[in-house]
Write a structure and sequence with these properties.
Blueprint: H1 12-26, E1 31-32, H2 35-40, H3 47-54, E2 64-66, H4 71-84, E3 88-91, E4 108-111, E5 118-121, E6 126-130, H5 135-144, E7 147-148, H6 161-167, H7 174-177, E8 184-190, E9 196-198, E10 224-231, E11 233-234, E12 238-246, H8 249-261, E13 268-272, H9 274-280, E14 291-299, H10 301-315, E15 320-321, H11 325-333, H12 338-343, E16 349-358, H13 359-375, E17 379-390, E18 393-402, H14 410-427, H15 443-450, H16 452-464
Parallel strand pairs: 2-4, 3-4
Antiparallel strand pairs: 1-2, 5-6, 6-10, 7-11, 8-9, 8-10, 12-14, 12-15, 13-14, 13-17, 16-18, 17-18
Helix pairs in contact: 1-4, 8-10, 13-14, 15-16
Bound molecules: flavin-adenine dinucleotide (FAD).
Flavin-adenine dinucleotide is lined by residues 44-45, 89-97, 100-101, 112, 131, 153-155, 159-160, 162-164, 166-167, 169-170, 219-220, 224-225, 337, 435-436, 471.
């Protein structure tokens, strides 16, 4: 937890003093302590806080919201926070699903949305962008100029570059283009005591540990990422689509493993279990009671033709060819996320959990996690798909839904299902998060996940952030 401020430190007089100091540095019009703004920045997309709002519960308010325009202003804000021992919470667009951006100890929310400059370097195939930029705005600008970053998370309309770097997010096209952290060439960040660091724009160096990379996935606890230089690609010349229905998950997984072993990385690779296949692909009769695999290969025309040829030849061994239709259907519906908001007001608890595991443990982990969630009283739905792949393993993405029984609250029920899933994941040799991060939701399991690394993380945090002002109370620290 944050070093508790004395009543004097957070008294109305003190708050007024901090407000004026912030205004002097970044302009009074860029600082707010209005109730409406505090409410807007009191939550992210963690289902628990979404429910709090539906139930009319008072969320946890920050003291101030600031909208800085550049790295120097962020440094000034952080220095003010340090000298006044008041928390700082970086805020992208609040689409995080684990509570990372919730200001649990009040303080200053730093909304990055005014920091949106970008510059493309064609020769180096890089883009340098301030981290407040919305991901769709960034990708559209790249597309207009003939490039893609290949990072398309389902939340790309409602998330910012900085949030994605800070959670090490993964997009739909990740098997070819990599995850957010794979795309980073260099970073600029402001540390918790206000110093600005920037790594060199080079493809690789051997100059000691990459200090700035500590900020990737740090969810704002070690500083604020202000700018990043990222890999980009020429806009794909060609896209080819394939889909196959498999008798079972094992055959589908095995086919994907073989495709990757041959050095072919389709951009989109998604394999659904039988329940999810019947939910998402009911219009494909050949997929009834089967597991649907969809593939999209893209890039240079000749290479795409070869990738499709290899993928098809592997899949035909055990799968039934379902053509392009199911992939087109997925492209049309991939941003549809209304299920969760439809069910929440009816007291149905609905959430997703993503984990990663090596191939040799993959099927066992899938079966264990599905069974563990199903076992919880009140669970009506426990399904999964695999959506990000490596030659070494896979990311499973589970969905559960249900209603609390025996007087349990929706929040207690939600935590119980998560507890069962996390236990099964750890016991099956998986990692508790592939791309959503830790925040508040997974905080209780991070110590077990990291082992000795957790103490090291605590020491790093303490040494970089002696006043514990950066996003305190997160990641179980
Ligand atoms: C409908 C929906 C679909 C989603 N689909 C995906 C998906 O496909 N793939 C995926 O990976 N995730 C997905 N997510 C989760 C979420 O969008 C990601 O975690 C995303 O990276 C969060 O971005 P944001 O800008 O909204 O960050 P926020 O929620 O604002 O912040 C996330 C965390 O990062 C910190 N932070 C934000 N900006 C900075 C910064 N500049 N410097 C340091 N720390 C910072 C915050 O303090 C917080 O801890 C989805 C969420 C929703 C609601």
């Amino acid at each position: 937890m944050v070093n508790k401020p004395s009543p004097k430190e957070r008294s109305p007089e003190k708050k007024k003093e901090i407000f004026v100091k912030l205004g002097n540095k970044i302009g009074l019009e860029n600082v707010s302590d209005k109730e409406l703004d505090k409410m807007a920045y009191s939550k992210d997309y963690w289902p628990i806080t979404v429910r709090w709002v539906l139930e009319g519960k008072t969320p946890i308010f920050p003291d101030f919201i600031v909208w800085p325009q550049n790295t120097k202003e962020i440094s000034d804000v952080i220095k003010i926070a340090n000298s006044n021992k008041i928390p700082i919470v970086p805020f992208g667009e609040g689409s995080g699903v684990v509570g990372g951006a919730i200001p649990v100890n009040g303080g200053i929310v730093v909304d990055m949305k005014r920091m949106t400059n970008i510059a493309i370097n064609d020769e180096n195939l890089t883009v340098t962008a301030q981290t407040g930029i919305n991901l769709t705005d960034l990708e559209r600008e790249l597309n207009r100029k003939g490039y893609t970053m290949g990072h398309h998370p389902q939340s790309m309309y409602c998330s910012a570059l900085g949030g994605n770097l800070s959670t090490r997010a993964a997009g739909h096209f990740s098997t070819k283009y990599g995850k957010m952290d794979d795309m980073v060439i260099s970073l600029e960040a402001v540390l918790p005591t206000g110093e600005i660091i920037r790594s060199k724009n080079v493809p690789k160096s051997s100059t000691g540990p990459s200090i700035e990379r500590l900020l990737l996935g740090a969810e704002g606890i070690l500083g604020i990422i202000t700018e990043a230089t990222l890999k980009i690609w020429p806009y794909p010349e060609e896209r080819a689509l394939s889909s196959y229905a498999f008798e079972n998950l094992k055959d589908g997984l095995e086919s994907i493993r073989k495709i990757l072993r041959r050095g072919v990385y389709p951009a989109v690779v998604r394999l659904y279990d039988k329940e999810e296949t019947s939910r998402h692909f009911y219009q494909t009769p050949d997929a009834k009671k089967k597991c649907m695999l969809i593939l999209a290969m893209e890039g240079d025309k000749d290479l795409v033709a070869l990738e499709k040829k290899v993928s098809d030849s592997v899949c035909k061994d055990k799968g039934m060819d379902c053509g392009e239709g199911p992939v087109n259907h997925w492209f049309e519906t991939r941003f549809n996320v209304k299920e969760a908001s439809d069910y929440a007001p009816r007291d149905i608890v609905f959430d997703t959990i993503e984990v990663s595991v090596t191939w040799d443990k993959s099927l066992n982990l899938y079966n264990s996690m599905i069974a563990a969630m199903k076992k919880v009283n009140g669970v009506l739905l426990s399904t999964g798909h695999a959506s990000h792949f490596y030659p070494q393993g896979v990311c499973f993405y589970f969905t559960f839904g249900g209603a609390p029984v025996k007087g349990a609250t929706p929040e207690e029920f939600h935590k119980e299902v998560w507890g069962a899933a996390m236990r099964a994941c750890i016991d099956s040799g998986g990692s508790i998060s592939h791309h959503h991060g830790i925040g508040l939701m997974r905080a209780d399991w991070l110590k077990e996940e990291l082992g000795g690394g957790f103490e090291a993380l605590k020491k790093i945090k303490k040494s970089l952030d002696p006043e514990n002002i950066m996003n305190p109370g997160k990641m179980g620290l």
